[in-house]
Amino acid sequence: MKHLTLAALGLALLLASCAPAAQKHTATLLAMDTVMELTAYGPEGEGALDEAQALIQELEGLMSATDPDSQITALNQGQTVTLSPPVRELLAQALELCGATDGALDITIYPVVRAWGFPNEQYQVPDPTALAQLLERVDYAQVTLSGDALTLPEGMELDLGAVAKGYAGDRVMELFHQAGVTCAYINLGGNVQTLGASPDGDPWRIGIQDPEGSSYLAVVEVTDQAVVTSGMYQRYFEQDGVRYGHILDPDTGYPADSALSSVTIVSPSGTLADGLSTALFVLGREGAEALWRSRDDFDFVLVGQDGTVTISEGIEDGFSLQGAGTDYALEVVRR
Ligand code: AMP
Ligand code: MG
């Protein structure tokens, strides 16, 4: 009898875990410098999508380093700011990740990001002496967050570009959950985040883009996870035949040169996945593996310039190379 109840309950939970495909609601918006696609299933989906769009716009308005009215801009101009709760929360999480990655992620990198012209697309290769001077203003460890106040030493500037989309994803998932949505998928310009399983009850199948082409090279199956990719191919400029990517090494001030083409992080936390995708791109394969061994809250897919795809064992089931990816050699890292 007990078995029967459990079985019936299990089935009910499965059916309730996701609404039929007919109740699919979608929205597309431009925010945080990218195209965002939101999909939520079920009767609550439509209203939740409206709220999610408003939430993303609000977060962007608070956190953008290029918006003259944002809290980050005010901080960067040396103003005293009473941080709003989301800014405080993201700064706390981001500073923790800067520490955990030993500064491979450094949210005070903005002076250097600007010197390369990434924010306004006025690209240039900075003068090495100027770059060395700017690097003296990059050090997350000098930032202190206390309650709703942040102290930023003079001349230092923040850039939350490496973590803001991941945080937005977490907040949207939270909003969906509170609205009663049990099945959703969002793609915030390459930051994918999923709620529950897919409408048919199977895991979501998320494509990982081929850094060398327009299609995808692998599929990873996930439930309730964020899948976030960082790569040079997402933003770069070329000068004199050299390609300069937007992910910078805080040690050198130059684009990260770690022999990786892209890094994808799979984790329940969008913020963590976003921060670590950027950091592991800087750290390279060895550093990425070492960090993975030291914690248990993420898995990775590293696409190497040498034609190797390296994944951590936690996502081995449900991972497959596809299309152009079948030309790559697959390597699984185990604990
Ligand atoms: P993502 O696309 O998440 O990898 O973030 C890259 C963006 O974060 C860049 O466009 C810069 O604005 C900023 N950024 C670049 N390098 C770093 C770094 N090492 N640490 C923190 N932020 C960075
Ligand atoms: Mg990132």
Q: What does the model show?
A:
The protein has helices at residues 2-16, 45-63, 71-76, 85-100, 110-115, 128-135, 164-179, 270-294; strands at residues 24-31, 34-41, 144-146, 149-151, 184-188, 191-195, 204-209, 216-222, 226-231, 236-239, 242-245, 260-267, 299-304, 308-312, 319-321, 329-333. It is globular. α2 runs antiparallel to α7, α4 (85-100) packs parallel to α8 and α7 (164-179) packs across α8 (270-294). The model is unreliable at 1-16 (pLDDT under 50). It is an alpha+beta fold. Strands 1-2-5-6-9-12-13-14-16 form a 9-stranded mixed β-sheet, with helices on one face. The structure holds adenosine monophosphate and magnesium ion. Magnesium ion (MG) binds next to α8.
Question: Which descriptors apply to this entry?
Answer:
three-stranded antiparallel beta sheet; binds magnesium ion; nine-stranded mixed beta sheet; 16 strands; binds adenosine monophosphate; alpha+beta; 335 residues
Q: What's the total number of strands?
A: 16
Strand content: 25-35%
In terms of structural class, how would the helical and strand content be classed?
alpha+beta
Shape: globular
Task: List the ions, cofactors and other small molecules found in this model.
Answer: adenosine monophosphate, magnesium ion
- Helical fraction equals 25-40%
Strand order of the largest sheet: 1-2-5-6-9-12-13-14-16
Q: What is the chain-wise order of helices and strands?
A: HEEHHHHHEEHEEEEEEEEHEEEE
Count of separate DSSP helical elements:
8
The rounded Rg comes to: 21 Å
Main β-sheet: number of strands, strand sense, barrel status?
9 strands, mixed
Distance between the termini: 42 Å
Residue stretches low in confidence (pLDDT < 50, at least 5 long) are 1-16
Average pLDDT works out at: 93
